[in-house]
């Protein structure tokens, strides 16, 4: 990628940018992709600040980039002591019961970051949203802190509005629909049970929310993994109400080279897909950390089988789940012609990019939203937690590229016991109905998004320009600071 503007190989010291990702694969992967893009600029020296096990996740990607001359450094600190097994350092590897310890570890990073940043004094910090204190540290050091968001602008605006207006506090019950206030675009209704837990209860996000928002608004600007054309009117509003400056640089999955996933089941999935007809396979994946309860896994297994469709299904879970005792007897043998069940991790972006995949059954995590669109796949939506029900509205009601798997009661609770088990028949029905009725129109729209997303990251596209702009602003800030005018 060629960059225009300030800095370069003129013998001056490079701009040292520190990237600090939250402890979850879905944050670390796109932030690494962003750091690698920065490394393509001759005037920039990016460093990722993280812990040893999280560094292992991204090392293959960093090595790959280093081989082509783009170096991203790693600055490691120990994972804070929160009584987790060795090497369990992110949401993707922790058990559901112990996930709160990851958030505890985040809080404990405050002092670690202060020590590291005041010792190394970078020229700019790009830190994930939970690390709100980095705006204050950047202020002490007289350098810019950019807030990094893996969540799209549409869900951010809705969550902000609800956190401010709290219209959901006045509904008679959890299933009573209400309209999101102050939102551009089509009117969107939600029900309370589907709102992120932090808006309904008092959790770790509620606790940190005011600090995170203040820190975002006081930070130099916000960089978001989205692209302007996708969320145009929401991006315009976001620039005014939620940031001093904003850059929309995604989809990062289309821009980075995702070596992180290369070794995990890639060959197996690709070989299996090669034998399938174009557009015949439903790819079923629910992100990097959510674990279904056994009963739901069993119903899902039977639903996929009952649909009669070809599928690749990624099953995640702790060691207990991975023993597959929940699986109906003889299941894998029975479905082996139609279905591939993969335990753990697959190369999602590569699978979505394969022409054999026709539909993406997704939990609507924002990375998955972007990746589905980037590869032009319509979606069957099954949101589970946090912003995912809001993202579903975006896919189904704003973009009209998907339909819901289940229309009964749904809860965004992270606690399994609050979720209604979606029965196998409903899953099979949704899959059949989708391909019989709506698929062609949705496919067309999804393919259009693929083209628009591709254009955004190409030279001269909106995301390409925004990234250039961000880097140049940081270089300029640094130059002015050195000249004493910042
Ligand atoms: N992912 C993957 N393989 C898997 C599961 C997830 O590559 O088996 C990647 C996926 O491509 C996406 C990220 O992990 O980039 C998941 O992020 P998302 O925001 O969709 O969901 P979350 O993990 O936060 O629930």
From TrEMBL:
Q: Which residues form a coiled coil?
A: none
In terms of Pfam families, this protein maps to:
UDPGT
- Superkingdom per UniProt: Eukaryota
Instruction: Return the SUPFAM superfamilies for the record.
Output: UDP-Glycosyltransferase/glycogen phosphorylase
The UniProt keywords, alphabetically, are: Glycosyltransferase, Transferase
Organism annotation: Dioscorea cayennensis subsp. rotundata (White Guinea yam)
Source taxonomy lineage?
A: Eukaryota, Viridiplantae, Streptophyta, Embryophyta, Tracheophyta
Q: GO molecular function: any one?
A: UDP-glucosyltransferase activity
Under CDD domains, the record lists:
GT1_Gtf-like (cd03784)
The reply on keyword Glycosyltransferase is yes
- State the family it belongs to: Belongs to the UDP-glycosyltransferase family.
Name it. Glycosyltransferase
Name the enzyme group at the top EC level: transferase
Enzyme Commission number(s) of this protein:
2.4.1.-
Cite the PANTHER family for this sequence.
Answer: GLYCOSYLTRANSFERASE
Q: Does the keyword Transmembrane helix apply?
A: no
